[in-house]
Amino acid sequence: MKIIFLSSRQGKALTLTLNTWAKVALSLCVLGVPLGAGLVIGVKSDRGDASLRAALAAVQVELDLQHEELQLGVANADKKIAAYSHKLAEIQARMVRMDALGERITDIAGLDKGEFNFSHTPAIGGPMERDATPVPEPTGATDLAVPEINNIISLDVQDLFAELEARMDNREQQLDLLRVMIVDRDLKRENTISGRPIAKGWLSSHYGRRTDPFNGRKVWHLGVDFAGKEGSDVIAVASGIVTRSEPYKGYGRLIEIDHGEGYVTRYGHNKTNLTAVGDLVKKGQVIAKMGSTGRSTGPHVHFEVYKNGRNVDPASYIRRTVR
Question: What are the extents of the domains in the chain?
């Protein structure tokens, strides 16, 4: 094989004769370079595809994990919602019972329903803060992670329970105030002189000027008399402390009770005294048995009322009604 090279400067031709080994070497050079380059490019391309496939597989694995986490979060949220719903139902049931109890107590106590209205939400209000930043409304769909969803659910539930807690506090405050008012009213009723000093019997003599049953003279009667069956109950017309329990002058067996705030009552002509000096008695308590001891014409109780040391007509206290 001959190769001829032409020179444009000298106008000569150079002939090169190649033997068999030279031919092989030249063929390898001419054909081997493109084949080698192609092979290198192919190997590099295969490696790039493998990296891409590996990256896609990693992304798919991550998506699968996030999907599983999302499903788990939704399941947990459902469980929380179910638990919150159950707790909410219990609280609402308690509030219904509390409202019913408050209404019942208000009715029994005869209080103003407008002041203790358990069936309505308490009135509230106040100025808005000027520096308060309004919360922007959502403008579109937003992808939320599972922790964010749980946080939103928790915040909503916390707000709901905070509102219920405030309502419960209001109900408890009303009930506490109602309880205090009832206790005060009970104390007032206990300490206020009212009613008759007997369980059974009738009024036999009024307060004021009358004819003395023993000598026929006009005298001043310091109390009122209630006649009845001997041995019947004599009761305290108000709570207080027994300051006298003994025979005394024309009263026969006498019981005297100090009710505080300047009020004192006396119960005379008793057959038997059932209380002693220093005893604390309650309104309506049986303190003696009706008799005819002392200056008396028959079984009855002589009842007197003193205010700040001055004897007064018991009639107004007997007719008094304490609310």
Answer: 2-73, 202-318
Strand 202-205 to 253-260 pairing:
unpaired
Kindly report the pTM of this predicted structure: 0.52
Say if residue 301's pLDDT is above 80. yes
> pLDDT of 248-268, one tens digit each?
989 999 999 999 989 999 999
Residue 315 has pLDDT above 80, yes or no: yes
Contacts 24+ apart (CB under 8 A), 244-250: 244/277, 245/273, 245/275, 245/276, 245/277, 245/279, 246/273, 247/293, 247/294, 249/294, 250/294, 250/295
* CA dihedral of 218, 219, 220, 226, whole degrees rounded to 10: -90
- Classified by CATH at the fold level, domain 202-318 comes out as Glucose Permease (Domain IIA) (2.70.70)
Which are the contacts of 321, defined by CB distance < 8 A and separation ≥ 6?
194
DSSP string for 118-167? TTSPPP---PPPTTPPPPPPP-S-----HHHHHHHHHHHHHHHHHHHHHH
Indicate the pLDDT class of residue 68, thresholds 50, 70 and 90: confident
Q: Are 308 and 261 in contact (CB under 8 A)?
A: no
CA neighbor of 242 nearest in space, from 224, 251, 254: 254
- Which has more pLDDT, 11 or 186? 186
**Core vs surface per residue 157-179: b (16+ CB within 10 A) or e:** beeeeeebeebeeebeebbeebe
